[in-house]
Design goal:
With about 260 residues, this protein is α/β, with parallel strands linked by helices. It is built from nine helices and seven strands, in the order H-E-H-E-H-E-H-E-H-E-H-E-H-H-H-E. The protein has a seven-stranded parallel sheet, sandwiched between helices. Pfam families: adh_short_C2.
Length: about 260
């Protein structure tokens, strides 16, 4: 007897007709997410501080649009989201890192990282949720945490990044609880070291890469598409009963 449940279940991983905004979408994990969402049928809004790169990225995804956005600018965030069509999915992928030993970390650099990684994620989630709440149809928000937000360890000092990514983990829980009754699911991914321009200085150090690989049970760094696949799951109807969760995409790094 033919089993039609498998094709039906596979359809739950699609985003046909959904408007999906991706911050930091012009490069790295964000770009991989934007491309995967486009392949899954979403109408993608690529949002990035570098407007030219956002437009370039959008031009390579059928039906996508590039939008210039500094996620740390409250007025800019509110204006950008107000100008969008009704969105069903937001992915907060914009992020920065300024790596210094804690005793040498200036307040200015600390505030830069906080403003993008933590405040920027909140501002975009708030703006997206306002739309979703007004429409009354729910939605999905996926934040980008990190294995460094779930562990105090690391191969080099990175206090502001680790702190903000830890904050993302609990922000995700808090927003998930607050918005659950309205059908808005909020989850996060926590990637390991991913082969993107974001960690280019680390990738240029072969010995450091070997150390990371040795610390990872699967023995390698992640590809951006592997993180994007996890984001697609969390954003899709397939994860309809998943909210408040942070999903490590780490090759077993945190399991040890």
């Amino acid at each position: 007897m033919p089993n039609d449940s498998a094709p039906a279940a596979a359809g739950n991983f699609r985003l046909d007709g959904t408007v999906a905004a991706v911050t930091g979408g012009a490069s790295g994990i964000g770009l991989a997410v934007a491309r995967m969402f486009g392949a899954a049928g979403a109408r993608v809004i690529v949002m990035d501080r570098d407007g030219a790169k956002a437009e370039e990225a959008g031009s390579g995804i059928p039906g996508a649009t590039g939008v210039t956005l500094d996620v740390a600018d409250e007025a800019a965030v509110d204006a950008a989201f107000a100008a969008l069509p009704e969105i069903g999915v937001l992915v907060n992928s914009a992020g920065i890192a300024l790596r210094h030993p804690a005793v040498e970390h200036s307040l200015g650099d600390w505030e830069k990282v906080v403003s993008v990684n933590m405040t920027g994620s909140f501002l975009c989630a708030r703006a997206a949720a306002r739309q979703m709440l007004a429409a009354g149809r729910g939605g999905a928000i996926v934040n980008t945490a990190s294995i460094m937000g779930l562990s105090g360890g690391g191969l080099y000092p990175n206090i502001s990044y680790q702190t903000t990514k830890g904050a993302i983990v609990n922000m995700t829980r808090a927003l998930a609880v607050e918005w659950a009754a309205s059908g808005i699911r909020v989850n996060a991914v926590a990637p390991t070291y991913v082969k993107t321009p974001f960690i280019a200085p680390l990738l240029a150090q072969p010995e450091l890469v070997r150390r990371i690989e040795a610390m990872t049970p699967l023995g390698r760094l992640a590809e951006p598409e592997e993180v994007a696949a996890a984001v697609l799951f969390l954003a899709s109807p397939a994860a309809g009963m998943v909210t408040g969760h942070t999903l490590p995409v780490d090759g077993g790094f945190l399991a040890q």
